[in-house]
Amino acid sequence: MDVMMIGIAGGTGSGKTTLTRQLAERFGSSVAVVTSDNYYRKHDDLTYEERCALNYDHPDAFDTALMIRHLSALRAGKGIQCPVYDFTTHNRSEKTVRISPAPVVILEGILIFTDPELCRLLDLRVFVDTDADVRILRRISRDVTQRGRSLDSIITQYLTTVKPMHEQFVEPSKRMAHLIVPEGGENTRALQVLIHAIEAHLARVEAEKES
């Protein structure tokens, strides 16, 4: 199966999820979306309080090996059972979601460009670059309304792990990007560039089927 794999990375609240959603809505079943957040490691051995204290913004927080196996399966035309992460309990749930193979696979996440093997799987690497003040405001709004977090816990986590890990890992990983997109989904010109790239790939896939 001829698969185009696109990685969309960027700091928390940068707009990478919005950009991913716009592409997924545009191309429907031709695009499969994998979110790296679902690959946070399972911590059934820890209490809720202990899980709250973990550093979720370090590359070691993710089961990258499983992510790579799943992406490799999708490239080979095989479906996967993607884990589901529960942000309210800070742990991977018992649920999985089937992701079917598609001509285009989008992997979205903050730290996906920090692993060399993962980078090699991605045909196009996009980094969404947004001002830090905008990102933290978006994170506060999201975590309060969608994840049931208190304002104090969000600020504490941001200052102790999110901000320093962004500076240590996320920002330097921008060097691995083929395309840097300021302001994420609000950047309509960059969105059109990605749309054209996906359209060209899908046209090649169709032409190969007919030949």
Percent helix range: 40-55%
Uncertain segments are none
The CATH superfamily is P-loop containing nucleotide triphosphate hydrolases
Radius of gyration: 17 Å
User: Which CATH C-level class is it?
Assistant: Alpha Beta
Which shape, going by the Cα principal axes?
globular
Q: What is the β-strand count?
A: 7
Task: Examine the coordinates and then state which fold CATH places here, giving the name of the CATH topology.
Answer: Rossmann fold
The number of helices is 7
Structural class: alpha/beta
What is the level-2 CATH architecture name? 3-Layer(aba) Sandwich
N-to-C order of helices and strands = EHEHHEEEHEHHEH
Strand order of the largest sheet: 2-5-1-6-7
Termini, distance in Å?
15 Å
How many domains comprise the coordinates?
A: 1
What's the overall average pLDDT, rounded?
Answer: 91
- Please state roughly what percent of the residues sit in beta strands, choosing from under 5%, 5-15%, 15-25%, 25-35%, 35-45% or over 45%: 15-25%
What keyword list fits this structure?
single chain; Rossmann fold; five-stranded parallel beta sheet; 211 residues; alpha/beta
Task: Outline the structure in words.
The structure is a single chain. By secondary structure, the protein is α/β, with parallel strands linked by helices. It has one domain: P-loop containing nucleotide triphosphate hydrolases (Rossmann fold, 3-Layer(aba) Sandwich), CATH 3.40.50.300. It is built from 7 helices and 7 strands. The chain has helices spanning 16-27, 48-52, 64-75, 116-121, 132-146, 151-170, 188-210; strands spanning 4-10, 31-35, 80-86, 91-99, 104-108, 124-129, 179-182. The strands form 2 sheets. It has a 5-stranded parallel beta sheet with strand order 2-5-1-6-7, sandwiched between helices. Strands 3-4 form a two-stranded antiparallel ribbon. Strand 3 and strand 4 form a beta hairpin. Helix 5 (132-146) packs across helix 6 (151-170). The longest helix has 23 residues, at 188-210.
